[in-house]
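In these records, each integer encodes one residue's backbone shape. Here is one protein:

___
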Amino acid sequence: MERIIASVEGSLDGPLMILVGGIHGNEISGVRAAEDVLNTLTLNSVPLRGRVIGIRGNLQALEIDKRYVDHDLNRSWIKEMVNRAYENPDATAENQEVIEILDFFDSLPVRAHAPKILVDLHSTSSEKGDFIIIPEDESKNPIVKALSLPIIIDLNKHLEGTLLQYMHERDYVSFAFEGGAVGTDEAHPLHVSGIWELLYAAGMISQETRNTYSRYDQYITQHHLELPKRVSVLYHHKVKSDHQFNMKPGYHNFMYVKKGEVLAEDRQGEIRAVHDGMIFMPLYQNEGDDGFFIVKEVE
């Protein structure tokens, strides 16, 4: 399996957009969406400003359809962990992935394109999982707002070691585009059309091209219009593998919960909401350290 999906260079100067799929190896939708868009750009000779590159994230995890092999690649982008990866690249599968991904970014021309945009394509473990995660100082960026999805402005403060935060610090407009639940029919078309919307918002394609290839309006249903525009994290419930964490069934992103409501259980007993708010990213898969979040709407 190759790291680079494809690279398409436009005939005119413009931004650089990096599409990353499969940072979590069980989230294949982003990889397939990047393949589809890049194939369309190439085969149809679509007029383009700037450059679009698609890459696969955790190659070894993608091969076995698991979130990760030894540890979560999307929690590995901390300076100390990156340094350890270079010091001991064979210690874990994800150490090798970190090095290869950074080698890719380091190979790009420093000043060839502006702005530089990183779109980290993900899926979630629960229903209605369409949203954007972005550092707070980029939360009103018009490129991101073009998706008309809820923007989580400070989740990166609770998810230490994400690729988006690492690349944000390297001057990329960097965000995660969560496109629905893992393995659902919803995720792939939302990602595909969302990428076309982002290319248009970044000034890389024309409105005519956008109208030809994007079906995004079909996926922004009344449900999306009723969702909050910007939310902030009130509470983060972390779990460990030996906690025997079990989320109660029926919860989905942005469902309202009341303080004291039983949300989950573990070996110590019931886990109750500590705030009124909206539940976010409830954990309905075997892998992962984040049991759930409670969020609130902000201006």
Summary: Residues 7 and 53 are 4 Å apart (CA to CA). The radius of gyration is 19 Å.
